[in-house]
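Hi support team,

I'm opening this ticket because the web form for multi-chain structure prediction keeps timing out on my end. I have pasted the exact lines I submitted so you can reproduce it. The total is 652 residues across two entries, so I didn't expect it to be a heavy job. Is there a limit I'm missing, or should I split the entries? Thanks in advance, R.K.
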Amino acid sequence: MSRIDITDDTYTVDKVGEVKLIELIQEWLGDATPPPPEGIGDDCAVLTVNEPSNLVVTADALTYQVHFDDDISPTSAGSKLIKRNLSDLAAMGATPTSAVLALLCGPDISVEWLKQFFAGIRDTCSAHQIKIIGGDISGLPPGQLSTVLTLTGIAKTPMLRTGGSINDWLYVTGTLGGSILSKHTNFTPRLREGVWLASNHDCVAMMDLTDGLAKDLRCLLPPNANAALEIDKIPLSTDTETLSKTSGKSCIQHAFCDGEDYELICVIKADTDLVEFEAKWHKQFPTLELSRIGQIVEDRGKGPYIDSLTGETLPWIQGFEHLKRT
Amino acid sequence: MSRIDITDDTYTVDKVGEVKLIELIQEWLGDATPPPPEGIGDDCAVLTVNEPSNLVVTADALTYQVHFDDDISPTSAGSKLIKRNLSDLAAMGATPTSAVLALLCGPDISVEWLKQFFAGIRDTCSAHQIKIIGGDISGLPPGQLSTVLTLTGIAKTPMLRTGGSINDWLYVTGTLGGSILSKHTNFTPRLREGVWLASNHDCVAMMDLTDGLAKDLRCLLPPNANAALEIDKIPLSTDTETLSKTSGKSCIQHAFCDGEDYELICVIKADTDLVEFEAKWHKQFPTLELSRIGQIVEDRGKGPYIDSLTGETLPWIQGFEHLKRT
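Hello R.K., no limit was hit. The queue was backed up. Here is the completed structure from your submission:
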């Protein structure tokens, strides 16, 4: 497909106008949006809940030149918006149901770009049986585009971040680091794995890795606890190795500090039969690694992360910071 | 209160960082955010629904230099974000329950400005017993701030836009036009009125006026129908009269075309005893006008709006367009 610029001089949203753009979006989304009152077209969307349920709700933004640039296709950008939110649901052990989309866009945004962006949204929603039930369109200055998706799902037993205790084990799915080379758009949200882990009584806490292990892992540690990590068990992605050759950073530093892994990290109870637990995982998910990377330990006054082999402080403690000057 | 600039040189969000900013937001929101898992702090918020319900969901954005500028206080801006969404719920006859907030902000946004902004959010949420149950923080280029609120509520019988028929009557609450002078921040969402109208069997369709009567009223007209309007019954705000003195536009043009009225417009069944209906309204809401402004009629080929007295086409058909170049 030839490259589509996010702005153009010809067929732009200000020429179409808001009313027509909403009609186009309904057309582009196709089956991924139901007719009103469940779908787009009224002051609110209606979401009928037929039985007592634990709904989970998450919101994530995707902004041009912050979360993506002209190097990725509009289809990939649309898909990424949905998948970022799906990864949050996976982390709660939830199954997605419906979403509301806010589109903030400058007058010079290309209608063709948006069409491809919504094709990415539609395909990813259809693959996960998510319906876009409503939203909002509002203006931004020229050249700018932001989208915010609020995604709702259902969780039988929502898995929180705060269930871990001293001596519990830490596991991660997949491999870490180097996401910037490809995985940041080309990832699979760990939904089936999240539901399976949340329904497993050995699993007591979980989250997804979006800002890097170094920043995110802290959220799973109870007060006055550190993580003792087995450095050689941290699963490195092949892109980590590629990146490390030119970045001046070690592979392990990339695995700790790079954002957008979109893998799950979970806490498994101390008294779990780990051999049996790992065997059950491998039977269920034979092609996806689950690595035991360490253990929650009492605070030893050496910072949040220590090398379990040497007892020394690990130096990597900074992940991705959203609010920085570039 | 002295003026607070949205950006400053001293205490800005990039100096605080995302983790600390989330803690500050929890502190600023106080009782308006519950502890996790119902509140901020996990991958998703959990919303327990105890019985079969019609949830309604809406999203609205509020962007610096699009929806507000430095002339309004951060407290008013925060309050406006909540109230814009409340007006959408009012239009469905719903009662608000909880919200998710996405904050997109540049590195140089002032922490003091945000503190006042969240004070406005807190006070308005508390007044309506809404809980902020989660959200997202992400970056924008310097000097920019956008927020998107997704608000959930419960509606016994959600009132749609599409229930009107030929010969039904059109009513609006309050007065129209001139919102730019004050009402665009200083308005009361018509929540009690919306619930009352939605529970009244004579009311068959409803929406809120945000983009101006001229643009919005079309959404209440069934296919092949026009609105015949009694021009002298359109309720003019006093700000409409003030504005008209210098704008070069008539009062009635302001009332038709100005955005951000945040009043309700509803459709009352043709066979309703209007005297009784109006008497019940005035008993329930003695200080708020409800004006019968016209009737839905068969398409007479003269455009969407006609003067019911003369049968002539009314010229005002454009309301607020979100996607224009300024």
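A quick check on our side: Chain B has two domains: 13-154, 169-307. Let us know if the file doesn't open in your viewer.
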